[in-house]
Design a protein that fits this description.
This protein is an alpha/beta fold. It is 42% helix and 16% strand.
Length: 275
C-alpha cells in the first residue's frame, strides 16, 4: 500500500512538473511574441507579408489558396518552423499561380477574411455563390495551428466555401475547440501525430459526413526509437516537449504533408516553358 501511494505520488508530481513546464513555455513564448510584435511582419496587412507576386486582390476565383497555421506563440514568418518552410517552398515553385500564406493560430478570422477576399477576385464584398463553389482551399498546421486549420474549415463551411484538403500535424486543441471532427465541406483530410510525448497530438480524426469527406489516414510517428536534433528550437522545448517538437521538424513528416498538398495543385509552370 505504501509503495502504491509512493508511485501515485510520483505520478502526480510528474504531471505537475509537466504542466509547470508547459506554463513556463507559454509565458516565455508569449513574452517573446510581445517583444517581437513591433518589428514583426504581423503588424502589416495579412496579405502584404506573404504575397511575392503582388497579385493580391486580383486572384482568379479558381486560383488555389493554401493557408498554413503555425503552432504555439510562433510568428507566422519564423523560418525555423516547418509550416513556414513548406509555405516558402510552394511560393517558390508556384509563384503567382497559387496563393500561399501563413498565419499565427490566433488569427483565424484574418485568414477567413483573406480567403473570402481572394475568392471575390476583382470585386468588393462577399464572393458570389459561383465563386465559392469554384474555390480550391487547402489548410494545414501544427499543434494549435492544426486545430486552427479545422476552425477555419468550419468557418468556411458556414460561408458556403468548400475545402479541398486539411492536414493536421500533432494537433492540439485549444479550450472549446474540436480538432477531431472534420466538417462536411472538407473533401480530403489527413492527420499526423505522435502519442509518446507531451503534449500528445490528436490520435484520430473522423468525418462528420463520410459521404463527403475522405479520411486519408491517421499516421502515427514514434520518436522513442529515434531522435532528431531540431536546430534553432529553444532547448527547453526540445527537452520537455521532445516528441511534439521532433514531429514538427521531422523532414519525413513534412515531405508527406507537402506531397499531399502538391497533389491538389496544378502543374508547376516554369518561366522557360513560357518563353
Amino acid at each position: 500500500m505504501h509503495r502504491y501511494r509512493l508511485l501515485r505520488g510520483r505520478g502526480s508530481l510528474n504531471l505537475i512538473l509537466r504542466l509547470a513546464v508547459a506554463a513556463m513555455l507559454m509565458l516565455a513564448n508569449g513574452l517573446q511574441a510581445w517583444a517581437d510584435d513591433a518589428a514583426s511582419k504581423d503588424s502589416k496587412p495579412p496579405h502584404a507579408a506573404n504575397d511575392p507576386s503582388g497579385l493580391v486582390g486580383r486572384n482568379s476565383p479558381s486560383t488555389p489558396i493554401v493557408i498554413g497555421f503555425v503552432g504555439g506563440f510562433i510568428r507566422h514568418d519564423d523560418a525555423v518552423h516547418s509550416t513556414v518552410i513548406l509555405a516558402r517552398n510552394l511560393q517558390h515553385d508556384y509563384a503567382s499561380t497559387v496563393h500561399v500564406e501563413t498565419f499565427e493560430n490566433r488569427r483565424v478570422t484574418d485568414a477567413r477574411n483573406t480567403v473570402l477576399r481572394l475568392l471575390a477576385g476583382g470585386h468588393r464584398g462577399e464572393p458570389t455563390a459561383e465563386e465559392k463553389r469554384a474555390a480550391r482551399v487547402i489548410l494545414y498546421g501544427h499543434s494549435w495551428g492544426a486545430s486552427a486549420a479545422l476552425l477555419l474549415a468550419r468557418q468556411l463551411q458556414t460561408s458556403g466555401v468548400p475545402v479541398v484538403l486539411t492536414v493536421q500535424v500533432d494537433s492540439v486543441a485549444k479550450l472549446g475547440q474540436d480538432d477531431a471532427l472534420i466538417p462536411g465541406n472538407v473533401e480530403h483530410a489527413a492527420n499526423f501525430y505522435q502519442s509518446n510525448g507531451f503534449p500528445r497530438g490528436q490520435k484520430q480524426i473522423r468525418a462528420a459526413d463520410a459521404g463527403r469527406t475522405q479520411i486519408l489516414g491517421n499516421f502515427r510517428f514514434d520518436y522513442d526509437s529515434k531522435s532528431l536534433a531540431c536546430p534553432g528550437y529553444p532547448w527547453i522545448a526540445r527537452t520537455f516537449m521532445k516528441s511534439h517538437i521532433e514531429i514538427e521538424c521531422d523532414p519525413e513528416v513534412w515531405q508527406r504533408v507537402e506531397g499531399l498538398i502538391r497533389a491538389q495543385l496544378p502543374p508547376i509552370v516554369r518561366e522557360t516553358a513560357l518563353q
